[in-house]
Fold this protein.
Amino acid sequence: MKFREDMRIVGEDYGVTIPVISIDGRLGDSLLGEGRCLKSIQEQIDKKMKPVVFPIPGKKISMGVYFKKEPVNANNIVAKIEGSHPELKKEVVVVGAHYDHVGRDNRGQVYPGADDNASGTAAVLELARAFRDLEEKPKRSLLFILFTAEEKGLLGARYYVDNPIFPLEKTLAMINLDMIGRNDVDQFSLLGRYQYPELYKIIEAANRGSVNMEINFSVEQFVRNSDHMPFMRKNIPVMFFNTGGHEQLHRPGDTARRVLPEKMEKISRLVFLSLYRAANLPPGARLDNPGQEKSH
Ligand SMILES: [Zn+2]
């Protein structure tokens, strides 16, 4: 196998260094030559558990990988509710959810992403509406952010923390809602208790007095996997609400009819109360983990 001189790997812009090429079985068979096929070779290997090795004479293969760069514009969508306290309104509590999903596959099949993450998006919209209708606003300001391009690598959230609307040192906490519509047990998963015990106390207290759901902590392994991460990296206390993985994740089956509206409503109520409590904490309150170094 040999690369032709005019074939280049143009991947630097994407951080891609290893070219990956896939071929289908028919092309594979035709490369093997007369009388051989992949299936029978696979069967031989499976039977004897030994590699099957042979030369393929008279074939010459060229491969090329090209990346075509097509920039797209995408926006975070942000709404602000200004705090009611003349000084504390300069501080902010953020609640966010990503509103992108993975689009279509190469056969044109749409991946609806109802749980991931229309569920979180709908909750953020409803939270914004509820705070808008509140006659007496909380003391601190609130930001409602629908992040773009989470599935492409948390791009919207990363952009926000590099270009924040309120200074990061005035950002008291961030709550991330990603996949909150599934799992018919009366519980949800929460990430951040160990990292941010002060923020956790607020959520725990809000839960106890209201929706009384069971809180489970099985999502610590997903610490890198959603929009809270860029905030965490900037030492902003975060909590990540989630109702757990499922077989339809990133598949065409993640449809609206599988989402549980009552579940979303309960979590949204709890997040509302948590935001309200956090935004009304006394002046000087911090929700950082006291054991963590502060550096913005
Ligand atoms: Zn997601």
Notes: Confidence is low (pLDDT under 50) at residues 1-12. Residues 92 and 278 are 9 Å apart (CA to CA).
